[in-house]
Every structure is written in C-alpha cells, then in structure tokens.
Amino acid sequence: APYQETFRPQFHFTPKENWMNDPNGLVYHNGEYHMFYQYNPYGDKWGHMSWGHAISKDLVHWEEQKVAIPEDEEYMIFSGSAVVDHHNTSGFGTKDNPPMVAIYTGHKQEPEKGQDQQLAYSLDNGRTWTKYAGNPVLDEGMENFRDPKVIWHEESEQWIMVVALSTDYKIAFYSSPNLKDWTFLSHFESPGSELGIWECPDLFALPIDGDEDKRKWVLEVDLGAGEEGSVAGGSGGLYFVGEFDGKQFIPDEDAMPESESGPHQWVDYGKDFYAAVSWSDVPEEDGRRIWVGWMNNWQYAQELPTSPWRSSQSIPRTLELASHDGGLKMVQEPVDELQTLRGEQKSLSNLTVTNDTRSLADWNIQGKALEMKVTFTPGNAEVVGLNLRTGNDEKTVLRYDVSEETLALDRTQSGQVDFHADFPGVHVAPLPLDNGQVELHVFIDWSSVEVFAHDGVVAISDKIFPQPDSEGVEVFVEGGSATFDRIEAWPLKSIW
Ligand code: FRU
C-alpha cells in the first residue's frame, strides 16, 4: 500500500514517488501552508529539477499536488522562495486578489552554463502557476548564483533578496520595489566559514528569550559539497546572529558565543538536515518563525535504500534566540501541532540504573513512530543513554558522555548502513548539563531520529534504516549510577 513501504516516514513529508531535495517556496496563504520542493517527476535520482508541491492546513498532514513549476527546454527550476505580494507591487494580481509569487533560480539546461533569478505567479491559491514572460529578472552572467530567499522588509518598505554566490562563499543582498527590478546592495562573507560551497540562505529576525520586542537578525547559510563540509561532514547549515539594516548584514560578535568551529554556529549536529528555509507570511497573530530542512546529505543522497520515493523533509520546527554561554543561540523546537498525532501516553519516574541496560518494554514503551521526553541526572555515572529502534543485532544509540559534556547519536549499528561509506558514523554535539540534568525530546520515525536537547539549543537529525520489526527502546548507564527522573512516550499516528 502507498505510504506503508519499508522505511516510509509516517509523520514526515515524502512525495508518493520519485526524487525530492530542498524545501522551496514555503509560504502561508489563506489558511494553507504551502510546501514546494526540488523534485524530479521522472525518476528517483536528481534530474529534471522542477518544483513539486504539497499543501497542509495544520503543518502535520500534507496533500501532494501536481507539479507546480516544471522544467522547460531552456531551464531547470532550482531552489527559491515564495511570497504573497499583498500590495500587488508586481502587478501580477489585483489588490483584492494578491498574487503568490515564486522567486527561483533558472539553471540553464546543458550544454549551456549559467544561473539567474526568475519569477512565476499564481492567482488561484497556488493551484496553477504562470512563468513570468519577462524572465530572467536578475542575471549577473554567473555560473553559480542561486537559491534566492525574498522577504518583505517592513522598515524600508521594499523586497530584499538574499542569494548565494556559491563558489565564491558569499551571500549577496538585493532590493526591489516590485520583485521585477533588482538593485545590488551588498555582499556578506565570513573568513573561516568556507567549509563547503554556500547554498540556500535565509534571513529573518527572531525574538530573544521570548520577548517579541527584543529581536536580532539571523543569517543562515547551508554548506554543500566541499572538503570539510558541515560539523558532521558533508551537507549542513550554519548561522550568524547580527543586524540587518535594509542594506547589509552585520554580524554581532558579542551575540555569538565563542565556537571552536569558527565565527559561525551550527544549525544541527546530525548529518541529515540541509537546505532548511522558513515560511513566509505566517500570520502576525501567530508570529512564529517555522522551518523545515531536507533530511539528507549530498554525500550519499542518491543512494538511500528507499523505493519508490527518495528523501523526506524534517518535522516543522519553530525558531527563537535564547541566551546561552554569554551569547545568543538559535533554538529549534518541534511545532506544537505535532502533538495531535500522540496516542496514549506511557511514563515512568525515578528509575535508577547502575551499570546496566534496561528495556522500556516493561512500561510498554516501544515503537517505530514514537515521541519521547526524557530527563535524567547522571549522578556519578560516566555515560548515560538510550538505545532506539533496537532489534536483532541493531540499535541507534544516543549517548551522553558526562566528562566530555557531549551528546552523540551513533548510527553505526542502526540497520542498513553499508550503501555508502559516508553513511555510518557518530555525530557529536556539545551539551553542558543543565542544573545537573540532561533533557531530551526525541522523534523516532520509520527511518529517522530527530533529537532536541535542552529546549532545542542542540538538534541532531539523522536518517536510519533499521529492520521494520526493530521497535525496542532501552536505557543504559555505564561507570556508575544515574537516575532517569522522568520518561514520557507517545506512539505517533500516521499522517497518511
Ligand atoms: C541544494 C541545491 C541548491 C540548488 C538545488 C538543485 O541542495 O544544490 O543549491 O538550487 O539543490 O536541486
């Protein structure tokens, strides 16, 4: 049956069939969340790039639509964004029926080379799209110039485009009154952050410590293919905190805690969270900044052992800034809407474990689509952790190392790992104890694990491919005694 195949995510968006990569054109309009995505309508590997499309009323249940913007003879349709042009500045619609406008990269079909920025618009709530006859709207004669994210900048009352000069490790800013005519504003670069080519930038202001009146800007950039790549290797995201004045982004060094990796902070410490972008036009009374990322990594993206689709998006997450280590960190938390999928809660309190591994089956905690909240006090133990999706000779291990103060997700024995040499591995995040405790929020699906620690200051997102009957959950303690103060678990219903 569709959506029941081995490894088919049950609460993450996947296309029914064929290849998907980056989320594109995330936009809210008239009660619907739209998600477009890089899509190959003709096969399960990258190619014929077009914008696929899905719609949700609740960020949880998605309905796949027909391809929104197909490739044509001249161009493939690469990544980009979408906005609701409320004032009809583009003239594509009317004041009463403002157009939805997609701004994407046109990638010249072989044997030509070159990337430029183009528009398409919809007057029927995103159901049908028309490519603008005046395309391209921005062409600098460059080969690597892509992934425009466009925002309405309230203070200067104009459109701002953030776009990557991928192989120059630069972000360019442009402004426009009407989405058609663009003026260059500035470049942003960051010595020490050239760890992979730059792709899929995003720019937004976030509240600080929950205070809507105190905000700073975040510039997010994704690192693609490169020697070193992101923190866990290969594809991943980084970000800078600072100010944006309508012309340029100025990083705020005081707001960014010292980091070993360079002047930036990491978005996610796992290997499968790439090209994340945030929704435009979420209603002001809601006020959340929400994003999703592509749960894959270009190192092995085309080899994932799934059929007839390949790749999934992450769960939607909200973003905020929180004070940490004398600076500000971007924290990610799963959207509350996901709680509607919860089945009957199972829980336990004050379980002390000494040099042992305990199955949580005794408390009826198991499953392959499962949400868990776990708080533990390491006490005198050296290592405290959880084994997830355990079964015959396999497990995905979440390990907290007390002296190192690190949280690691180890997928070396997680099931199928040998389809690519860069897939198996251990992905480590720094995580100081919080009042002597560790607090984890974990989402387990048929082929992924997403971990949010300490209210989302650390996220680790990884694909896994265990056997379908590997449903166990265990807790373990090494080198002493630790107490699991509280464990809550909910089986999650399928969205399909
Ligand atoms: C990122 C990316 C983008 C590009 C798209 C092509 O994963 O390489 O830079 O627009 O994928 O599919």
From TrEMBL:
Residues 12-334 form the Glycosyl hydrolase family 32 N-terminal domain. Residues 337-491 form the Glycosyl hydrolase family 32 C-terminal domain. GO terms for cellular component: cytoplasm. InterPro entries: ConA-like_dom_sf, Glyco_hydro_32, Glyco_hydro_32_AS, Glyco_hydro_32_C, Glyco_hydro_32_N, Glyco_hydro_beta-prop_sf. GO terms for biological process: sucrose catabolic process. GO terms for molecular function: sucrose alpha-glucosidase activity. Keywords: Glycosidase, Hydrolase, Signal. Belongs to the glycosyl hydrolase 32 family. This is Levanase. It comes from Marinimicrobium koreense. The lineage of its organism: Bacteria, Pseudomonadati, Pseudomonadota, Gammaproteobacteria, Cellvibrionales.
